[in-house]
Amino acid sequence: MNKNELNPDASPEAAFGARLRSMRESRGWTQEDVAARTEYSSVHVSAVENGRKPPTLRFARGLDRAFGAEGANSFESEYREIKHGHLLEGFPEYVKYEGRAAEIRLYEIGIVPGLLQTPAYAQVLADSAARRGSITSEHADERVAFLAERQAALVRSRPPMMLVVMDESCVRRQVGGPEVMRAQLDRLAEFAELPNTVLQIAPYDIGERRPFDLPMNLLTLSDLSVVAYAESQLRGHLERDSAAVLPLLAAYHQLQAEALSQAASAAMIDEVRKGIP
């Protein structure tokens, strides 16, 4: 049977497929053999190999188990390089800084910040994006898994100091129904009690004194340098120039001064939770 010629330079997905074929043929395996070892169909293996379908995290991990690949040479590592190409500009680099930051400052509007989301809350948001056609259902699951990895990176012997200011809409806007929202509010209350956290809510009546109109992330690194990350609907921007970052840090301090105290914020969260039927 004639086989398609693969051009690994055509795209990252094509390079992934070409590597899969090369490793498969070096083992003397058929596509059916790979399918049996990864619990996918041979049709799926062929589609990825020929670049007709992008790889998923689950499939990449299945290939690593089948071929014994690991580390920088793993299919999962290659998948993440492809995946990062679809993320907003600046975000992959931001995540690398986030995982080793000494201090994390977050401001969010409308939804609970990702690092504080429960799996169920995160899954509802991802599934909603899939229903709208923004992402596929597989990508929705991968988005939740990626968030879990970001959260896990913060669980270390010396966890970062986390200062979080949420717009009141984050706790008032119900996501996923009563059960999901109740558990999410419980998670926020637990977060506020940790020794390395400060949680504040910026109430609606802050009005024009709110210094940010978009979510803002500020990271202080071990060398005391600060990086900032902000994004719109279409693009993200990572800023490392101190001349640009320091005014944002000053604005964050102003935001904290206008926000409710942690005690008052916890009381509001408890009030909202009690109001959920």
UniProtKB/TrEMBL annotation:
Domain of life: Bacteria
Transmembrane domains' residue ranges: none
Pfam families given in the database record: DUF5753, HTH_31
Ranges of residues in domain HTH cro/C1-type: 20-74
Gene3D superfamilies with a match to the protein in the record: lambda repressor-like DNA-binding domains (1.10.260.40)
Name of the protein: Helix-turn-helix domain-containing protein
